[in-house]
Amino acid sequence: MNKGEAQATAWNADTQLDGNSLLYLEEMYERYLQEPASIPASWQHYFDALPAVNGHERDTRHSLVKDYFRAYAAKPQAVAAPVAGSVDMEHERKQVKVLQLINAYRFLGHFHAKTNPLDENTPAFVKELTLAYHSLSEADLDTTFNTGSLVAPDQLTLREIIAQLEATYCGSIGVQYMHTTSTEQKRWVQQRLESVRSTPTFSPAEKLEILDRLTAAEGLERYLHTNYVGQKRFSLEGGESLIPMLNTLIQHGGSLGAQEMVIGMAHRGRLNVLVNVLGKAPALLFGEFEGKYANNGDRTGDVKYHMGFASDMMTPGGPLHVAMAFNPSHLEIVGPVVQGAVRARQDRWDDAGGDKIIPVVLHGDAAFAGQGVNMEMLQMADTRGYRTYGTIHIVINNQVGFTTSTAADARSTYYCTDIAKMVDSPVFHVNGDDPEAVVLITQIAFDFRAKFDKDVVIDLVCYRRHGHNEADEPSATQPVMYRKIRALPTTRELYARRLTGEGLITAEDAQERVQRCRQQLTSGAPTVPHLLEKGEVQNPHPVKWKRFVDNAWDMPVDTTISADAVKRLGTKLTEYPADFKLNSRVARIVADRKKMAAGEQLMDWGFCENLAYASLIDEGYPIRLSGEDCGRGTFFHRHAVFHEQESGATFVPLQHLSEAQMPFVVIDSLLSEEAVLAFEYGYATTEANTLVIWEAQFGDFANCAQVVIDQFISSGEQKWGRLCGLVMLLPHGFEGQGPEHSSARLERYLQLCAQHNMQVCVPSTPAQAFHMLRRQMVRDYRTPLIVMTPKSLLRHPLAVNSMEDLTERGFQNVIDEIDVLDPLKVTRLVMCSGKVYYDLLEQRRKAGLDDVALVRIEQIYPFPEADMNVILDRYPNIAVNVWCQEEPLNQGAWLSIQPALRLVLGGMARLDVVSRPASASPAVGSAKVHAAQQQELVNNALGIRVES
Q1: How far does the signal peptide extend, from start to end residue (predicted)?
Q2: CATH number for the domain including 848?
Q3: Can you tell me whether residue 144 is helix, strand or coil?
Q4: What is d(CA 203, CA 647) in angstroms, rounded to the nearest whole number?
Q5: Residue 17 — pLDDT band, cuts 50, 70, 90?
Q6: Residues 738 and 880 reside in one and the same domain
Q7: At what angle do helices 491-501 and 507-523 cross, to 10 degrees?
Q8: For the chain, what is the domain count?
Q9: Which pLDDT score is estimated for 60?
Q10: Could you tell me the pLDDT band of residue 121, with boundaries at 50, 70 and 90?
Q11: Domain extent for 863
Q12: Are residues 797 and 832 both part of a single domain?
């Protein structure tokens, strides 16, 4: 068969080939070069007939060439180019296989790593890590190969290469990093691990420091176990290496210039961390166990393993402030709170690269995999509004969830840390019973974060020596696991034996350290060696909260601004670059705002809200506004951000008020409520002088963040004494848009109100919103503000204000009747909040009623009793008092406001309620039914009888 016949035969073998068949042909040719008999005879004949390559009968396999260039890029001097037809062709083939084996260890070596203290160190079978998989055998072990990109001498025997790979990737440290998209980051990790074979070399002093930290960790747990029998402490036993790990983070971080570190963690091991890392005096902890500090005054307080703490540590780089965030039992929810607190500190320090302020978040293994807030938090990592330049995540992986859940029930992923892969974070798995490996990987993780400003995860694989709490019996549900645990020596014992074997200490020395630790605990003095005295370090960026303590919500405050300020700032809100083309609708809104600023047109909601921000910025208050569509506003009213219609460029007028103005930050957030609201809470509890606002796209959606509302916003001050001025804007109003777009669940917030813990307002005019926002900052009072913001009122023709409403009067907790009525003729008083007022007003005017007065309660909690009494005194002849609400009877304000109304009305006064009927759902799905309900509700409230 000649060349032409061979080609014809091959093409006839597959008549479907065309210009898109390149990959198929490439694969067929590659198989031919490797093993001709593996392809059809027609193709063999075709390729046999191809001309010789550089005088050789057969071409070099293309995969060998590709692998050559990969290896050459990493280590040019170590790799020889493959040559077609060379006598070394077989060696070159094996050379490529060796390079593939090296890569396999980098990808999959963690499956063979000895990271689990409870395993018998029998690795899982991973075929990609076998010689046979790569067409190698034991006969090749003593053959010398180029090491390619391996951080090693240029040439080693295969046996030596495997030994280095095993030491690096299959010892006490297992690492997952090859999933990251950055070649630079992958090479950095390879350099750090492969250069030392994942084997630390610590000085004797450093080793003794590790032993002392383990001794302190174990000593505290045993002391508590002995002296406070049966009391919950959520022991760290089994995970004691966490203490030298955190100590390393502080000391190593401080040496690299860190100034503050914020730590968040749940209750497991928290008491140990407070004493042995942050330096809380054991005497204080013991007093809490003994109930000595149970009196919190009017505050409820909290259990000891939820409490926060702060201290200053001396490090090689100078003092470092360490803060532990307060946290409820809702485990992972503290993560985004820490992120917000860190971002606030970074903004305060002008820490543009995140080098000075370090976030550290500790997780449980089952919680890290199972709690959705972690996905939301990780998704924030590199976003503009929430970035903290890398968080160090530590998973205290005790391999069991609450009491009974194991990996088979706790997750669908192989590792509990696999969620971190979605943001390209490297994951370092480390055996908790090898504290030197723990310290090494902690240093590497910190350095990775410092180098690349990215999240990094340390999976501290350990165990839990006791049950979920110390009264629990874990072997009832985990008999096999706890049989292993009871047979294990403690981490401190293992490490003490190791140092004894190295001749660094004697067994007597180790025991003496245990005794010294116990004596120190008995004395009650702090156990941390690098702790600085309170007041020894002056914070260069202090935030003074004292002026906000014990102040009353109704303290007098002037929220008005001058007419000149309205004109000057209002005009600034309408200015933008000359070459900036606005959307036509936005351009009309801006044109109207120019008239509002000049006093030529009544002011609407969007103008007054933006003017409130401008006036606060002008007076020295930074503002941070975030939410899922807050730049524009879900209902097209705010337009704090202008968008150029050709280029897509943006312009924020509030950022261009003056050259030396305070910052205005507006963030269209990721589609998250829980994590974003938690972040903003953390920010607001850290920054007293910044107006921090979170806006829900619809008020109903705040349901997704209920944990944050219940456990932090409503109760943080009562439990932990944490003041917070966070504002929540929740669009609310029954507009016929169905159950999920009507109610911000006002009733839930009111149910949470007590002891003046929150403010709940329903402003009904733009001027009220203006003064309410200004009042939140200009008075020396910091309590969360929950606002039922409007939807249709944003453009309601009656919901407008004149300039005088901003310049002559402030926020009104209660608004009296605005029409001219004779108070003596009024026999029916209708009280309400929000949008329904305008429906009542229009219907009353239409019906010509002059004996019905309408009163708006703008602040529902704390209830403005004094303001209500002033208004009630104007109407001596009231026969019927009505509370009218759009919401169903079992929802809205009625059940919470009723006692306060009865108190001001007097016990004998008649008080009726008009609402929708009690309902399991907030609203009907039909706009037509809604309209009929609304009309009936308004008529009933006004006492209008309609013939059926």
Answers
A1: none
A2: 3.40.50.11610
A3: strand
A4: 59
A5: low
A6: no
A7: 140
A8: 3
A9: 62
A10: low
A11: 814-942
A12: no
